[in-house]
Amino acid sequence: MKNLSPQPRLFYGLWPDAATRAAFAALQPAVGGTPSRPDKLHLTMAFLGQRAAHEMPALLAILDEVPASAITLCFDHFSYFPKAELSWAALRATPPALLALRTQLMRRLACAGLAPAFEHDRFTPHVTLARKAGPPPAAPFAPLIWQADQLVLVESVKSSGDYHVLASRQLV
C-alpha cells in the first residue's frame, strides 16, 4: 500500500477491467466537456471523504468482509448532473445486488462509527464520463455490459487528481 497522507480522501468503488474501461472511454466523445481520465473511470459505492489514517484497518476490514458477489451492470444511456456539470453513463435498471452492496457498505461503516457525515440515502449509480460538460445526447447507446467483479478502496489525491487503489477484493 502506498504511503498515505495523514488524512487521505477515500472512497469504495467498483473498478472496471481494461476492456470495460476502454468501452466507457469510447463513449466520452459523445458527451463533450473535459473527459475523465480513463484510468479513473469507476462506479463510486461510498464516498468517505477525508479520513484519519488510523481508520484504515477498519476500512480494510469492511472491504474484506462485506458480503458481495459479482454484479452484472447494463449501461445504455447518458445522464447529467446540471449543478456539477457532469455527464455520465447511466444504468438501464439498478440491480438489487448493487443496492444490497451499497446498503451493506453503509451499514458496516455506521456500525464501525465510520459513516460519512454527509452521506444520505440517495444513491445514483453512474460512471462519470466528463466534467464541465453540457447536457449529453438524449439518444441511448448500444448497451455496455459490465461484469463488476472488483471492489476497491481508493485514495483520491486532490493535489494531483490521481487515484491510488489501496486495496481490492475480487467479487465472485
From TrEMBL:
Active site, renumbered: 42, 126
Protein's UniProt name: RNA 2',3'-cyclic phosphodiesterase
EC number: 3.1.4.58
Keyword Transcription regulation on entry: no
InterPro entries according to UniProt: Cyclic_Pdiesterase, RNA_CPDase
Family: Belongs to the 2H phosphoesterase superfamily. ThpR family.
One MF annotation (Gene Ontology) recorded for this entry: 2',3'-cyclic-nucleotide 3'-phosphodiesterase activity
Record's catalysed reaction(s): a 3'-end 2',3'-cyclophospho-ribonucleotide-RNA + H2O = a 3'-end 2'-phospho-ribonucleotide-RNA + H(+)
A Pfam family it matches: 2_5_RNA_ligase2
